């Protein structure tokens, strides 16, 4: 079996060999704010630290068969070609800032789109009803669309195995907007460059490429399908996007949050592999996101109860493999593989709380394995973080982060790194979100081994609790070495945790004084 197919045999063996033979060079970790002056180290009650393994969502109902059962074919829909102007579903692309010019130039006239309304339409039926200059079959089962395709609020579009490939023309300005229900099963949908007779591969962030967008109140199901060469750096045009309307539009139309499932599918060469905004109960399961440009999987603002499970995310070129950002709460990220991404494997960002990150394999990413930025109250359980270039787990400005039964091994810097940072002068966008420059961690069980700068470094913590943490195979010839606050009290910490087998509480004296007052 190749290292990519099952990388942990090679990575674990390499880490253990490295730790038992030669010491890695120590790389200092910068302190970013002044630490509290005095900390106490004491034994802590063990019982409150006991936590049962987390209960994961039941995934058995998310199947291709279940998706088929959701398709309502009883009412035959209507197909029309009409102007894009004054269509609610297209206002994002036709409104101010001369947005219409893009489509005027590509269509050489007043922009038009293909619309599905009033019921179910099979894509092969759609192709028969649309003039061939706009949509035609170029080979058996292969279709080229030269106009946008819009599923209206009452429409249901089904693209299934009868369509071997749907090609959305870059030159024609084709894209897909779902304002009703969309089912894509057992097929391929690709951005297509007619000039090259090939995929519309990424060339520039500003160059239009076809995309798929689903609006508020919609349902989108993509099953056992492949999508490639979508998206560019334009709002709502990122690749595969699930989004709300603007607040005013949502209120006017009385629409609910969008939802749907992506199962067993593959996405490559997308600006964003998956993006969602104000989306609830969406499931991304058993899919592959490879060689995408900015992000692999990127749920965003005020999305909740998402399930991201069993996916493989690798080769993201600019940023992270999986990231949730800005109040993405109450969600589950588990049993994924995230590797060889330009920055971190998994990121929890900007006031995203009450999430579970469990049983993921995160390795060979070019910065951290798991990164938590300004996001408290999250549980990180049973992950394997191996051979990432910087930290295994990095926690910044986040409190009540519980790290249970994780393995962080052979990472370039620290196994678990906790720190605070003042962002007010460095990133105005981040600074607009309220957060405290505080960090507190509970680290229970697991293993921190052969990390380049040591197992643990925690600067200026509100509190730290440690229990049953294995720290074998130090990378330094001098043995186990802590950094930050822990380094100053290392002998006491190790005596309590290793020799006496007790839980350890590291607490600033200033905080104790405040609590007493």
TrEMBL record:
UniProt GO MF annotations: isomerase activity
Source domain of life: Bacteria
EC numbers: 5.1.3.37
Keywords of the record: Alginate biosynthesis, Isomerase, Periplasm, Repeat, Signal
Pfam families hit by this protein: Beta_helix
Record has Cell inner membrane as a keyword: no
Pathway: Glycan biosynthesis; alginate biosynthesis
Localization per Swiss-Prot or TrEMBL: Periplasm
Chain ranges of the Carbohydrate-binding/sugar hydrolysis domain: 236-396
InterPro entries documented for this protein: Beta_helix, Carb-bd_sugar_hydrolysis-dom, Mannuronan_C5-epimerase, Para_beta_helix_rpt-2, PbH1, Pectin_lyas_fold, Pectin_lyase_fold/virulence
Family annotation (SUPFAM superfamilies): Pectin lyase-like (SSF51126)
Residues in the signal sequence: 1-25
Swiss-Prot/TrEMBL catalytic activity: [(1->4)-beta-D-mannuronosyl](n) = [alginate](n)
Family affiliation: Belongs to the D-mannuronate C5-epimerase family.
Task performed by this protein: Catalyzes the epimerization of beta-D-mannuronate to alpha-L-guluronate during the synthesis of the linear polysaccharide alginate. In addition, is part of a periplasmic protein complex that protects alginate from degradation by AlgL by channeling the newly formed alginate polymer through a scaffold that transfers the alginate polymer through the periplasmic space to the outer membrane secretin AlgE.
Name assigned to this protein: mannuronan 5-epimerase
Source organism per UniProt: Pseudomonas fontis
């Amino acid at each position: 079996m190749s290292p990519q197919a099952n990388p942990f045999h090679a990575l674990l063996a390499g880490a253990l060999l490295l730790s038992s033979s030669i010491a890695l060079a120590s790389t200092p970790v910068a302190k970013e704010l002044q630490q509290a002056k005095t900390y106490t180290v004491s034994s802590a009650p063990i019982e409150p630290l006991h936590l049962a393994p987390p209960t994961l969502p039941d995934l058995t109902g998310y199947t291709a068969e279940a998706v088929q059962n959701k398709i309502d074919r009883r009412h035959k829909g209507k197909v029309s070609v009409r102007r894009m102007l004054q269509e609610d579903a297209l206002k994002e692309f036709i409104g101010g800032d001369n947005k219409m010019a893009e489509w005027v130039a590509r269509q050489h006239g007043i922009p038009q789109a293909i619309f599905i309304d009033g019921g179910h339409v099979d894509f092969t039926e759609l192709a028969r009803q649309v003039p061939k200059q706009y949509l035609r079959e170029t080979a058996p089962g292969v279709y080229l669309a030269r106009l946008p395709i819009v599923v209206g609020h009452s429409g249901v579009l089904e693209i299934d195995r009868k369509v071997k490939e749907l090609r959305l023309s870059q030159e024609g300005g084709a894209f897909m907007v779902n304002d009703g229900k969309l089912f894509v099963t057992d097929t391929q949908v690709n951005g297509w460059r007619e000039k090259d007779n090939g995929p519309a591969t990424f060339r520039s962030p500003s160059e239009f490429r076809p995309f798929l967008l689903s609006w508020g109140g919609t349902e989108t199901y993509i099953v056992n399908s492949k999508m490639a060469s979508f998206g560019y750096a334009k709002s709502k045009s990122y690749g595969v996007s699930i989004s709300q309307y603007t607040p005013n539009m949502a209120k006017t139309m009385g629409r609910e949050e969008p939802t749907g499932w992506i199962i067993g599918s593959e996405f490559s060469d997308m600006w964003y592999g998956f993006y969602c905004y104000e989306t609830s109960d969406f499931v991304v399961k058993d899919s592959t996101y490879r060689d995408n440009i900015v992000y692999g999987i990127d749920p965003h603002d005020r999305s909740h109860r998402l399930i991201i499970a069993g996916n493989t995310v690798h080769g993201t070129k600019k940023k992270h493999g999986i990231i949730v950002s800005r109040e993405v709460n109450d969600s589950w990220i588990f049993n994924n593989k995230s590797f060889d991404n330009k920055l971190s494997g998994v990121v929890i960002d900007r006031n995203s709380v009450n999430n579970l990150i469990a049983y993921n394999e995160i390795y060979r990413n070019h910065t951290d394995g798991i990164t938590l930025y300004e996001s408290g109250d999250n549980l990180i359980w049973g992950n394997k973080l191996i051979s990432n270039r910087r930290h295994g787990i990095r926690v910044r400005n986040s409190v009540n982060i519980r790290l249970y039964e994780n393995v962080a091994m052979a990472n370039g810097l620290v196994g678990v790194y906790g720190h605070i940072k003042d962002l007010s002068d460095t990133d105005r966008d981040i600074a607009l979100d309220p957060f405290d420059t505080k960090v507190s961690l509970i680290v229970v069980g697991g293993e921190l081994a052969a990390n380049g700068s040591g197992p643990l470094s925690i600067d200026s913590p509100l509190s730290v609790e440690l229990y049953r943490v294995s720290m074998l195979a130090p990378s330094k010839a001098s043995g186990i070495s802590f950094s930050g606050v822990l380094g100053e009290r290392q002998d006491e910490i190790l005596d309590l945790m290793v020799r006496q087998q007790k839980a350890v509480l590291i607490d600033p004296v200033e905080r104790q004084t405040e609590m007493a007052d």
